[in-house]
Design brief:
- This protein has five helices and six strands, in the order H-E-H-H-E-E-E-E-E-H-H.
- It has 231 residues and is an alpha+beta fold.
- The protein has a single domain, classed as START domain (Alpha-D-Glucose-1,6-Bisphosphate, Chain A, domain 4).
Length: 231
């Protein structure tokens, strides 16, 4: 999806977000800084960008992990209607539209992601039950809610896909609420439950997932905001 330009002018092609050494260094630096700053800003980070009762408000998919051991809700204003935001969420995933984050950094750990800056028509019709991968060799998340242009929910549990005993579960929710004047509120929420063994805690516990998730999610939300407003 390209923006219109005046005749005779040239617009440099949009570059995938998070590409290059400097972008990777930025991502690493933010992760390290947030790890060190967790004792001071950790609680505020769990509700970054939210207003009023958004952190505690019920969102689609909350019932999939009804009693999480920890969760976060992040929010951002977007100067675009929900219909302009939804296409970027519908195509999210490895091997799809990417995650709009630090692409070079993600690929350094083998994600094989390409963060697109275009709407991909072949990935505009996600279906409940479809798999969405974060990494080509790790268990996928499963699409549980598709409610365009309002909600998209992914659910993950190793036990659910038959690889382990029940020892953890998580949801990743994207919610869009129409505002006034063609604006929208865009929220993303993660809810996590885990068992007592170290593998479960490492996979679904707050540290270090929350720090990495925050840095990546914040970048993703700001990039989706930029792409939706660009249109």
């Amino acid at each position: 999806m390209a923006t219109e330009q005046a005749p005779g002018t040239y617009r440099q092609p949009d570059r995938s977000p998070g590409v290059g050494v400097l972008a990777a260094l930025e991502g690493v630096a933010l992760i390290v800084w947030h790890m060190l700053a967790t004792p001071f800003i950790g609680k505020r980070r769990l509700r970054w960008g939210t207003v009023d009762d958004e952190p505690s408000a019920q969102l689609p998919g909350d019932e999939l992990v009804p009693t999480p051991k920890w969760s976060y809700t992040l929010g951002v204003d977007i100067d675009a209607p929900p219909e302009a935001i939804w296409p970027w969420i519908a195509q999210i995933g490895q091997g799809r539209g990417g995650f709009y984050t630090y692409q070079t950094l993600e690929n350094m750990v083998g994600c094989k992601v390409r963060n697109t800056t275009e709407i991909l028509t072949e990935h505009q019709h996600p279906t409940v039950g479809d798999d969405v991968y974060l990494h080509p060799t790790t268990p996928p998340l499963r699409i549980e809610v598709v409610d365009p242009p309002r909600a998209f929910v992914l659910f993950g549990s190793p036990a659910d896909i038959g690889t382990e005993e029940t020892w953890g579960a998580s949801t990743w929710t994207f919610a869009i609420e129409a505002g006034t004047g063609g604006r929208s509120r865009f929220l993303t929420r993660g809810r996590y439950d885990y068992g007592e063994d170290w593998k479960s805690r490492l996979s679904f516990g707050r540290f270090p997932i929350e720090v990495i998730s925050f840095v990546m999610s914040r970048k993703m939300m700001l990039e989706i905001k930029r792409l939706a407003e660009r249109s």
